[in-house]
Give the backbone structure.
Amino acid sequence: MKKACVFIFLLFFLAASIAAGILTGGTPIAPEMIFDALIHPGGQGTMHTLLWELRLPRILMAALVGAALAQSGVIFQAILRNPLAEPYTLGVSGGGALGATISIMCGISGIPMVLFCFAGCIISISLVLGVASVKNFTNSMLILTGVIMSFLFSSIVMFIFAVATSRDVYASVLWFMGSLAAPDSGSIRIMLFLVAPLMLILWGFAKDLNVLSLGDEKTYHLGIDAKKAKTALLIAASLIAGACVAAAGVIGFIGLMIPHLMRKAVGADHHWLLPSSMLAGAGFLIICDSLSQTLIRPLELPVGVITGMAGGVFFLLYLIRVKPTEVM
Amino acid sequence: MPLLSVENLSTGYEKDPIVSDVSFTIPSGCLFGILGPNGAGKTTLFKALSRVLKPWEGRICYQEKDISILGRREFARQVSVVPQFHGVLPPYTVEEFVRLGRYPHLRRFAALQDDDCRIVAETLALLDIARYAAKKITTLSGGEMQRVYLAQALVQKPRLLLMDEPTSHLDITHQIKILDLVNSLSEKQGLTVAIILHDLNLASAYCDQITLMKDGKIFAKGTPAEVLTGEHIEEVYGTRVYIRNDPVVSKPHIFFIPGQFS
Amino acid sequence: MGITCLGEDSVYRFTCDVHYLYDIVWERKNMLRALLIALCGAMLWSPGNLAALESSPHRIISLAPSLTREIYDLGAGDLLVGVTLYRPEAARSKEIVGTLTKLNFEKIFSLKPDLVLASKDSNTKTDIEKLMALGLNVVVFEGCTSLSCICDEFERLGSLLGKEHESEEILHEVRQKIAHIGSSIKGRKPVKVFWQMGATPLVSISDASFAGEYIRLAGCENIFADAPASYPRINIEEVIARNPDVIITVAEMESDSVQALWSTMDDISAVKNRRVYSLNADLVCQPTPRMFAKGFELVVKSLYPGVL
């Protein structure tokens, strides 16, 4: 009963944040004009383009990326059984950063750049899983390998920075900060047609996640193939995170914080935890993105700054009030 | 036909075997105790029985079939485990946690049916934890948690239940309660139970058959009277005891001799 | 790394000097790009469609501070409707459309510009492509490291805005000034120069950079002209070994520590002869023709004091 209430609240929250995102943005527009452009999708004019080609795609990206990062975080925390686990634990951000840096150096942009970043993410995931498979995918091995791979890729990126032109370094750093602005069609397509279906499929693996979060041994007792389930779920969760990185840069904190908050709200059963995290993550990122556009208008803050600061403060307060046994 | 038979089993973790050349059988409906000092290999044996560890030599047969050929879910429908160490747990409610025991009976994307919910409710009532159904397991005491684990194992509706030191963290009342419950399930429903115990007297009072292990090998097996003798205990545990017959349950009772090591 | 940890104006100062002899870099990149185009069909970089403008533009947005300055030089400041945050005094009243790090696409679009000016130095390819995708008319200017490039791009801007006469005048004036300075120092002994961009870490310039052009035009020698990167991080021991006659530092923010640093190194002839000069980055760092001339004058005054 309580869970259903939370769920309905989250639906309203998402709807409200979408409304907020539509009504606010980089430039103030009267609500009537927005409404007018909304109900006439086939129309022409500045307002119309602004709404349909700038704001709405941005909101869509924010929703998809927020939901994906939150869901990925839930999966990582369940499998690795670590409250600090999050989507970039397996070095995905490092791989994406390397892919982005290399494409910027080679003058690639647009869809090919997105693919390049994604390739970087896939390479880092494969390396981490490959190394961890030697030790049978134990959680500590996975986390350790992920951290090492992250450092490795970051060092390579730093090396490239040292010998690259400052223009390229500058462009790469901007990319790292993350941006949902004016998403290109390639990014949108990856999120809509790869990530969204994957997220829905992963919802069906709630049972496996429930059992995996009890530890490897329990999986034997309850008839689940731990190795297969872990590998498949980690790959899927990392791919989702990698797609987000390729599409929008590195946006932190959502994958860490939302699962914790939702676990407190709806409990640890992943049948509820997964969908509610997706809704909460989507709404949260839309709001953060709106804030990033309006706080120092007409200047814009990188959205990662808002998720970090707002999320960080909120999360600190939550941790102060929660009991130690309930952190995980 | 014995429910479980172990033939010449050797297994371990790294290079050296922890358990070597162990053979015994567990008849159906029996309450089977496994005893031994720390490090004798009891938990390792259990891990082999629950397929966490693979046998290096020998084999384990469930209903005359080698357990390694059974499917995972099929095996989980027959055998369930109440483990010893619980570790950090996610904040499930008691009901959510116990429900996980029904998973071996469900297909991948299937939800719990009415039948499953009924079984869960009955088991919670049986173990007297129905009033905790909405409580988070992270807030329970040791004894309550032990019963929750047992409930989860029981909703699996197994034919063989493996319990690893279920009484170690419990006060005396709860120890008796759990063993009474397990005993009655064994007698009334024909549930076969293999249980690792430290308390020799509890083992003596409840178990139909006992296996005594030492250094990874079986030292003695049989009825409590046959196994729990002064010589056996002194040789396996390295401590002298008195054995008297308990008049209430007609089983041997072990009396310790304090002061022998000072 | 220093790029993003400093404020907006420092970012500008640092990046404004990122002017390459794009031709040289273009060759390398072009080969690589051709390969990658074959592999993944990358979009081609198109510098905007000049022919699309039937008449002179009257609503211009400038995405680079140097372009903003040039527009004012040409007397076309009233055509500007939007600029980036770092802008000259004259543009204080104009709408801000973002910073070099983040452009406000909604703002740019809602200002309905008929011309958007971008620079390869200041704006990323991704941002420019996004603006083009929105249907805006974006004209991209090269990032220049040579005087001839700066003048060519300025002329191009002039004709784009219909201010050919003004641009010709300015260029003539600039070229004359530079020629005059050049003749004043003709025949003088070339000076060995160490140009310092940053203090921690110690960064200099190679010949493939904006400031290198100053030194080259003055007929002097940049002691790190051959460095592999355009803004090389160098070891101070190398500076001592190459023994420059003059040290010019543009690291304005750290002027005290810079002076302190050099005052301990009296084996360097520049320090011995007290020829360590600190120049205002604002004056020597702007890639517009007028500012180039001003900057050149300042540099020459440091290299050959008393001549001008």
In short: Residues 116 and 136 of chain C are 7 Å apart (CA to CA). Strands of chain C lie at 60-62, 80-83, 95-96, 115-119, 138-141, 192-196, 221-222, 246-249, 276-278.
